[in-house]
Automatic annotation (TrEMBL):
Any GO BP annotation: tRNA threonylcarbamoyladenosine modification
Highest classification ranks of the organism: Bacteria, Pseudomonadati, Myxococcota, Polyangia, Nannocystales
E.C. code: 2.3.1.234
Protein name, UniProt field: tRNA N6-adenosine threonylcarbamoyltransferase
Positions bound to Fe cation: H117, H121, D314
InterPro entries linked to this entry: ATPase_NBD, Gcp-like_dom, KAE1/TsaD, TsaD
Coiled coil: none
Length: 345
């Protein structure tokens, strides 16, 4: 089998998603966000996430099937496999998706593949919408910077299923730092996109925030100190008194995060001799980060692939594409909730 048609479910955090792909081609991708549910709490409330996945999942699956032009009663014949994110994530949230996928597998007789969420993010840089004319590029070796709300990792991808963890955050993930600093500034959840927009108006050199571990020889990150530095600054100076001051703070904070992410990724690339760098995960949507990586790629002459904006955040198309690649390779189906199988050293 060269190209598998797969339906996948993703429910690891606060997006309920379902998608259908033909290999790397996305036939449909439906995402129901729970942002409005969690925003009043300033972060994801696990119990609420599970309950809302329960409510949203059936209509989201139905919409993905319909948009892909499939017959709900003929899925067994129209698909090659089913997939579901089985780790890592909020356990209750994962279980909703996994149990729905098991039900579908029972009803259709299709094999069910568990996908590691971070392997899914790796595939977000390879998938292409049905409407794009050119053929998607096949999954190939590269250096990946995975930056999301829960993870900040540098992974050398040697091939399908061969992922070498070069470094990771020792405390907060980059997205988590954005969200926590937004909360300190009284901004809404998730803070990443809000800080990103404000930063575009501000002066990144207004406040000198620390660049942790910039000169360490390893490829690890740390963002907890930066968050504390923002808190200390606010204690000393008070909350920003104008939009311009707020924008300056956001720009200065964002520059500190971006500096470290870009410098460490480039150092890992040089050390490993990778000619290709991918930036994936929710934080890969950040305009400042994308611009700085564009500059670095032009300066150092490597090929840069940033995930398309609509596939940076959590979605099921990337999960389906990862599963489709494994199906094509003949991997045996299995689902293992909460066990890190894909990205560990
Ligand atoms: O990949 P994702 O959707 O979910 C996880 O797997 O965690 O990432 C969500 C994270 C949140 O922390 C959010 O604030 C951040 O990605 N994010 C951004 C931007 N858009 C989303 N951070 C910075 N700039 C953005 N434009
Ligand atoms: Zn994610």
């Amino acid at each position: 089998m060269t190209m598998a048609r797969v339906l996948a479910i993703e429910s690891s955090c606060d997006e309920t998603a379902c998608a259908v792909v033909d290999g790397l081609r996305v036939r449909s991708s439906v995402v129901a966000s729970q942002i409005e549910v969690h925003a009043p709490f300033g972060g994801v409330v696990p119990e609420l996430a599970s309950r809302h996945h329960l409510d949203s999942l059936a209509p989201v699956i139905r919409a993905a099937i319909e948009q892909a032009g499939l017959e709900p009663t003929k899925l067994g014949a129209q698909l090659d496999a089913l997939a579901v994110t089985d780790s890592p994530g909020l356990v209750g949230a994962l279980l909703v998706g996994v149990q729905a996928a098991r039900g579908l597998a029972l009803a259709t007789g299709l094999p069910l593949f568990g996908v590691h969420h971070m392997e899914g993010h790796l595939f977000s840089a390879f998938i292409a919408d049905d409407s794009t004319a050119s053929e998607p590029e096949p999954f190939a070796p590269h250096l990946a910077l995975l930056v999301s709300g829960g993870h900040t990792e540098l992974v050398e991808v040697h091939g399908l299923g061969r992922y070498e963890l070069l470094g990771a955050t020792r405390d907060d993930a980059a997205g988590e730092a954005f969200d926590k600093v937004a909360k300190l500034l009284g901004l809404s959840y998730p803070g990443g996109p809000i800080i990103d927009r404000l930063a575009a108006e501000g002066d990144p050199s207004a406040v000198a925030f620390p660049r942790a571990m910039l000169r360490s020889k390893d490829f690890d990150f740390s963002f907890a100190g930066l968050k504390t530095a923002v808190a200390v600054h606010l204690e000393r100076e008070g909350q920003p008194r104008s939009r311009a001051e707020l924008a300056d703070l956001c720009a200065s904070f964002q520059a500190a995060v971006v500096d470290v992410l870009v410098a460490k990724t480039c150092a890992a690339r040089r050390a490993r001799g990778c000619e290709r760098v991918h930036v994936v995960g929710g934080v890969a949507a950040n305009a400042g980060l994308r611009a700085r990586f564009d500059d670095a790629a032009a300066r150092e002459g490597f090929r840069l692939v940033t995930a398309p904006l609509r596939y940076c955040g959590d979605n099921a198309a990337m999960i389906a594409a990862a599963a489709a690649a494994h199906v094509a390779e003949g991997r045996a189906p299995r689902v293992v909730v909460q066990s890190s199988v894909a990205l560990d050293e």
